[in-house]
Write a structure and sequence with these properties.
mainly alpha, 221 residues, two-stranded antiparallel ribbon, single chain
């Protein structure tokens, strides 16, 4: 029987998957049109990571920057997996402990009897657990703490990689806006809501002008 933790995690995973797929489709559609304008085959837009590589080359960025996104994607998957395992582990420990505690005969020693009509209820008067209980031993505490430490380290690394991705995205926003003859509003849009603005650039009337070269402030073919 699925626990409340399992249900919550399943909902989070489903919502996250829908959001990721929607974002990917929007980006791929925009990339496809941008690539066609630049003379590239549209199918390249649908290949993960390779589509970014091609777009970086189109706007004059180094294709090697894709490594930053690859590392970030890897760390995101690691953190997601560890989070699911960690929350599931805590949920299982909690459920097992409560089931063992409330089903044991000792539970009634922690309650007082209340009779209403023909029904007799046991009302809890203090937490029905004992810190010395075998189900709440040091091994479980250590296991949970170690999992939390590992998750914290992975999350920190993910945050550092996320900063790197943000920097790359800012440079990409500047380059793609200039390469397609667009202004500062598109730069801001590509930074804040890239999924929408890549569609506007791709399906809009803008034309590919060539790689943007910041030093000369010119667009070359």
């Amino acid at each position: 029987m699925m626990t409340i933790f399992g249900t919550m995690m399943a909902m989070v995973i489903v919502i996250a998957c829908i959001a990721i797929i929607a974002s990917y489709v929007m980006t791929a559609l925009g990339y496809m049109q941008c690539m066609k304008k630049a003379g590239e085959a549209g199918w390249k837009a649908w290949v993960p990571f390779y589509n970014d590589f091609v777009m970086y080359k189109i706007v004059g960025l180094s294709g090697g920057l894709i490594a930053v996104k690859a590392v970030y994607a890897f760390l995101v998957s690691v953190v997601l997996s560890m989070s699911i395992m960690y929350i599931s582990k805590i949920g299982n420990y909690t459920d097992n402990y409560l089931n063992n505690t409330y089903s044991s005969s000792s539970y009634r020693t922690n309650t007082k009897k209340r009779t209403t009509g023909i029904h007799t209820n046991y009302v809890n008067i203090y937490p029905p657990y004992d810190l010395d209980d075998d189900d709440f031993d040091e091994e479980i505490i250590s296991d949970v703490m170690n999992g939390g430490i590992g998750l914290s380290i992975a999350s920190t690394l993910e945050s550092v990689a996320a900063i790197g991705v943000l920097v790359v995205n800012i440079f990409f926003a500047i380059r793609i806006s200039k390469a397609y003859g667009l202004g500062g509003g598109y730069i801001a849009g590509m930074i804040l809501v890239p999924g929408i603005f890549i569609l506007i650039i791709g399906f809009g009337k803008s034309e590919y002008k060539g790689n943007y070269v910041p030093k000369s402030k010119e667009v070359i073919q």
